[in-house]
Design a protein that fits this description.
Elements: H1 2-12, H2 15-26, E1 32-33, H3 34-41, H4 45-57, E2 61-66, E3 69-74, H5 76-90, H6 108-111, E4 120-125, H7 131-142, E5 148-153, H8 162-170, E6 190-193, H9 196-201, E7 212-215, H10 229-250, H11 260-269, H12 275-282, H13 294-301
Helix pairs in contact: 1-5, 7-10, 10-12, 11-12
Length: 302
C-alpha cells in the first residue's frame, strides 16, 4: 500500500494529471471520453493518452470501452486511500485532530474490555523490558484511576530487565509483567513512544481511528543484562525522574474528556519534561498569593 500511495502522489504532482483527475471528479458519476477531456484541458490527444494510461494503472481512473469511445471514470476511493495513508503513516494521525473527546474514539467493545470505561494508554519502547514497564508502573502509582496504563515492546525481550525489577522493588512499586508485543493488547487511545525505535514503529500501530501518538524521549540504559550496571542504573534513575515530571504534568490532563487536538498539544508539550507547559495548555494557572504587608512579603521572599 505504501508504494502504491507514493506512486499516486507522484502522479498527482504533475499539474496536467491533477487537472485531469479534478475534472473527472467534478463530472461524477458520469464518465468522459478521451476527446472531451483533451478539448476541456486544451492538450492534444496524443499527449493526454500517456497520462490517462498512467493514472489508470495506478487505480486513480478506470477506463471503459463503449463502441468506438474510451470513457474514463475517476475513483475517489483511491484518493481516500492516499489521504488515509498520509494521515496514519506520515502525519501519525495528526490530520484527524478533531475536537472529539479521546474516549469517544473508543468502540464500545474496547471500552468494556476490562470493564473500567477508562481510556487506555500504551507506553512503548524497543524491548518492552526497561522503559515502558517503568513508565506503566510509575503511572499506575501516581495516576491511579485516570487511565488503564499498559506497556509493550516493539521487539519484546524474553524477560524484564533484572535491574529494572530491583529499581521497582526499591521504589515500592509492584513487579512489572513480562514484555509483550504491542499487538497483544486491545487498541489504545493514547500511545507514548519512549525511545527512537518505538517512535519509528508508531505507523504500524495506526488503524482507521488512529490513537493520539506522542514521543517522550528518555535516557536508554545501554548494555546487556549483567554488564555496565552502574551506567545502566544511572540511566534508569534519570528516566525515572524524567517520567515523574511528565506524569505530574499529565495529572492535570482529563484524558477521557479533553478534545483530541488539545490532548495532542498537551502530550507534545510534555515531551520536554516541563509540566508547567502542559498545565498551561489545559487549565487556568492558579492565582498568585498576594501579601498585604511589606513585612510579610519580605519574609516570604527570604
Amino acid at each position: 500500500m505504501e508504494t502504491l500511495c507514493q506512486t499516486r502522489l507522484a502522479l498527482l504532482g504533475n499539474p496536467l494529471r491533477l487537472r485531469l483527475v479534478r475534472l473527472l471528479i467534478r463530472h461524477l458519476p458520469h464518465p468522459l471520453p478521451a476527446g472531451a477531456l483533451a478539448s476541456a484541458l486544451g492538450v492534444p490527444g496524443s499527449t493526454l493518452s500517456a497520462h490517462l494510461a498512467a493514472l489508470c494503472e495506478a487505480g486513480l481512473l478506470v477506463q471503459r470501452v463503449r463502441g468506438p469511445l474510451r470513457l474514463y471514470h475517476a475513483v475517489p476511493a483511491a484518493l481516500g486511500q492516499v489521504v488515509d495513508w498520509l494521515t496514519a503513516d506520515v502525519a501519525l494521525g495528526r490530520l484527524s485532530e478533531l475536537d472529539v473527546p479521546t474516549q469517544g474514539l473508543t468502540r464500545g467493545r474496547d471500552r468494556g474490555r476490562r470493564g473500567t470505561g477508562l481510556p487506555r494508554v500504551l507506553f512503548l519502547c524497543r524491548d518492552g523490558a526497561q522503559l515502558s514497564p517503568l513508565a506503566a508502573a510509575l503511572a499506575q502509582r501516581r495516576l491511579w484511576g485516570q487511565a488503564v496504563w499498559i506497556s509493550a515492546g516493539v521487539q519484546p525481550a524474553g524477560r524484564v530487565d533484572p535491574l529494572l525489577a530491583a529499581v521497582l522493588q526499591a521504589q515500592g512499586m509492584p513487579p512489572a509483567e513480562s514484555p509483550r508485543p504491542m499487538q497483544a493488547f486491545a487498541p489504545a487511545q493514547v500511545v507514548i513512544a519512549l525511545d527512537s525505535a518505538a517512535a519509528e514503529a508508531l505507523p504500524g500501530l495506526l488503524r482507521s481511528v488512529p490513537p493520539v501518538c506522542a514521543y517522550w524521549p528518555l535516557p536508554v540504559p545501554r548494555g546487556e543484562t549483567g554488564e555496565r550496571v552502574i551506567p545502566r542504573a544511572m540511566a534508569l534513575d534519570a528516566a525515572l525522574r524524567a517520567l515523574a515530571l511528565r506524569l505530574d504534568g499529565l495529572r492535570a490532563v482529563p484524558l477521557a474528556q479533553l478534545p483530541r487536538g488539545a490532548l495532542q498539544a498537551a502530550l507534545d508539550s510534555l515531551s520536554s519534561g516541563l509540566p508547567e507547559v502542559c498545565r498551561a495548555a489545559v487549565s487556568v494557572p492558579p492565582p498568585r498569593r498576594r501579601w498585604s504587608s511589606p513585612a510579610l512579603r519580605a519574609s516570604a521572599a527570604s
